[in-house]
Amino acid sequence: MSELSQAVLFSLTPHPLAAPLVSQLGATPGDLSQRRFPDGESYLRVNTDVSNRHCVVLADLAHPDAKFLPLVFLADTLRELGAASVGLIAPYLPYMRQDRRFADGEALTSRLFSGMVSQHLDWLVTMDPHLHRYASLDEIYSIPSCVVQGAPALAQWLQGQTDLLLVGPDAESEQWVKGIAEFSGHPYIIGDKHRYGDREVQVTLPALSDYSHYTAMIIDDVISSGHTILECIASLKAGGISRVRCAAIHGIFADSSDIRLRDAGLEALVTCNTIAHDSNGVDIAPLLVKPVTELLEQMQDPG
Predict the structure, then answer these.
(1) CB–CB of 281/251 below 8 Å?
(2) What pLDDT shows up at residue 197?
(3) What integer is the mean pLDDT of 215-226?
(4) Element containing residue 153 per DSSP (H, E)
C-alpha cells in the first residue's frame, strides 16, 4: 500500500495482536478516547485523522454483548469522519453456535448478528469460527470475509516437542488434529464425546496402554466452560497417562475455568493470542497479514 493509502488500525480494547499487526501491516495505530458516563452509556472520540483512509478495527468479541455497541459506534463514526472503508478483524467470532432453531420461537442469533455486522462493516477476517451447519461465512455474511485456520500455528509450535500424544476430544476435531499430527510428527487419538447440556459432557478415549510414557497434549479449537477438557484430563489420567497439557485456538475460560483446568492437573495450558489471556503462547498475527492486506487492496481497487 502507498503512504497515501496507509491503513489505520484501531483496537477497541488492549489486545496482544494490535502491535504486531500495526508493524506487519505497515499500518498507523489509531488513537481513541473512551469512557463510560455514570449512567453506563459509552463515550467515544476518534483522535486520528481518518479522512480518505482505510480503517481496520481489531475487536476482541469474546463475551460480545457489552462490546458490540461500542464497535458499531466506532465503525459508524469512522465513516462519518470520511474513512474510505472500515474492516473488522475479529480473531474470535461470536454468535455462530445458534445456526438453526432447535425449538419454536428461538432467535436465530447467528443470522441476526451477521446481518448487523454486515450492515456496519465492509469486510471481516476471523480465525476458526464455529462453522457447524454453515459451509462458509458467505451463507450468513453479505460482506467479503476470510476465515484463517489456526492449526498451522499450533502445528508449528508443536514441531520439535518430543514424546507427545495429541488428543482430540471428539469426532469434529479429528480432521484438523490429524493434520496437526502429520505436520508435527506426533501420534494422535480421538475421543468420543456426548454432550448432555452446556456444562455436562462425557468423553471416552481409546485404550491408552501403548502411550503411558507419553505426555498427552489435548488439542481443541475453543475452551469455554472447560468441561470437555476436564473430562479429557480425567480420562487420560484414568488410562495411565500422568502428564497432561492442553493447547487451544481460543481461550474464553468462562467462570474462571482456566483455574479449574490447572487445578485438575494440567501441566501446561497454552492458547493462541486471539483472546487476551495469560495462557497466550502462540502468535497468530503472521497468519492474518495476507488476508487483511488482500481485503484492503480490494477496498482500494474494488473493480
Answers:
(1) no
(2) 65
(3) 94
(4) helix 151-158
